[in-house]
Amino acid sequence: MRSNKYAVASTKKLTDDCFECESEGEIGLEREIRKVQKLGNASLGISIPKEWAASKGITAGTLLDMIYEDNGDILLTQRGGGLQQYPTRCRIHADICPDPEMIRRIIIGCYVVGYDTIRIVSGTGITEEQYEKVRAAVDQLTGMTIMEQDEKQIVMTCIIKPPEFPIMSMIRRLFLLSSLIVERTLENAIRPTEAGPGIIETMELEIDRLYRLILRLLLLGARDREVARQIGIEDSRHMLGDRAIAAALESVGDLCESLIGQLQSSSQPKHSANYDEAIERILSMFRELSSDTSRCLFEHDLKAASQALDNAGVLEEACVAEIKTAHSESQPKNEKKGIAENVRPLIFSNMKNIVREYEFIVQIMMNRFIENPSHKFPYVEIETQKEH
After folding, report:
1. pLDDT band at 386 (very low <50, low <70, confident <90, very high)
2. How far apart are the C-alpha atoms of 121 and 138, rounded to whole Å?
3. Residue 258 in contact with residue 351, Cβ under 8 Å?
4. DSSP 8-state symbol, 24
5. Alpha-carbon distance values, 315 to 100, 144, 355, 364 (Å)
């Protein structure tokens, strides 16, 4: 469910209560201006704040890395520091958490923001209900495992390494699962099976896990340029788009889960031929939209992007038309409505929302094409401002 996916630990709010970041003397400096000095005949130099240097163990002779950012800025970092310069451990105080569910949500949040080791501690002893919530969180997180456990603490560690999970490979997997769950949901609406809802639920859980892993990778990449390179992000601007794409695909899984749940809770009679044909037609149109969106997203195919936007518009109009048809064919208000009249508008309404998520993904990619015009996007040329 959506409430399980977006929980991110707010360190500012929870630091004094049930959440504690285990850092090593991190300091905060306000912005300050320093003057560039001339060194010798050709070199320029600037002094480093004494407090910052001391906190990083930097002394005379220490080697520093100068990383050139996409926007032309220079990032100064300790050589070989990498991800280790950030806190990687945190502690959750179970005794003062409002309820066991809060523990599960904080664990998910800690995983997403990049903590490698999460420790649950309790002075009075971890309860069975708290342990069950910890287990539930671990099951929902890729690469998270319980390493130590006793009556008063549970230690979890994330064993995945970012370079092993290229971001576009993860998004491709998420895209395939999201498209497949739509197809299975529509097929189950036409030909319901006992196993159908369970299969869709399993797929949705995998979508959730992938989504959280993608968020973790993107946030790690956002704070460490080297990690970003390792997972295949060359332009930092794309991280925002990648996160939005992942969120859209995760939303598709939510819509399918919600729809199949409502279908399952209703006793469906024999569908009419028109009902089945309408869903088959929508399914066929969706497969074409999914194919075009895939080529746009992973092959950077401009023509496929344009075609996807056209197909999305046509498919959305078809869904609206089917909703109107279902309403116009419904029985009078004083008669009990059958499942076809109740569920049919719901199916096409959800499909309309799913189409909009795919349209949103294509729009993100179109913006990306325009950011970097090439032979694949010859219609836009960046004009450099001439100096006078």
Report:
1. low
2. 16
3. no
4. S
5. 44, 40, 7, 19
| Degrees, nearest 5: CA angle 212-215-217 | 110
Q: Which domains does the chain have, with CATH numbers?
A: 2-23+86-158 (no CATH), 164-371 (1.20.58.220)
Q: How far apart are the first and last CA of the chain?
A: 59
Residue 55 buriedness (CB in 10 A; 0-12 / 13-18 / 19+): middle
β-strand pairing of 117-121 with 144-150: unpaired
Residue type, 50: K
pLDDT digits (tens, 9 = 90+) for 146-180: 999 999 999 999 999 999 999 999 999 999 999 99
C-alpha–C-alpha distance, residues 23 and 3, integer Å: 29
Share of the chain above pLDDT 70, in %: 81
Q: How far is CA 307 from the centre of its chain?
A: 26
> What is the Cα–Cα distance from 217 to 227, expressed in whole angstroms?
8
Bridge partner list, 145: 157
The residue type at 104? R
DSSP track, 7-41: ----HHHHTTTTEEEE-SS-----------EEETT
Q: Find the DSSP H helices in 50-195.
A: 50-56, 100-113, 128-139, 167-190
Q: What is the pLDDT of residues 271-301, one digit of tens each?
A: 567 788 999 999 999 999 999 999 999 998 8
| Residue that is written with structure tokens 């491709």 in the block | 172
Distance CA 353, CA 62 (A): 55
Residue 382: exposed, middle, or buried by beta-carbon count in 10 A (0-12, 13-18, 19+)? Answer: exposed
Read off the tokens for 27: 């300091």
Residue 176 to residue 193: CA distance in whole angstroms: 22
Report which DSSP code applies to 164: G
Let me know: does 28 contact 8? Beta carbons within 8 Å.
Answer: no
Per-residue H/E/C for 227-245: HHHHCCCCCCCHHHHHHHH
On whether the CB atoms of residues 238 and 246 are closer than 8 A, the answer is no
pTM for the structure as a whole: 0.79
Query: Would you put residue 318 in left (φ > 0), alpha (ψ -120 to 50) or beta?
Result: alpha
Share of the chain above pLDDT 90, in %: 54
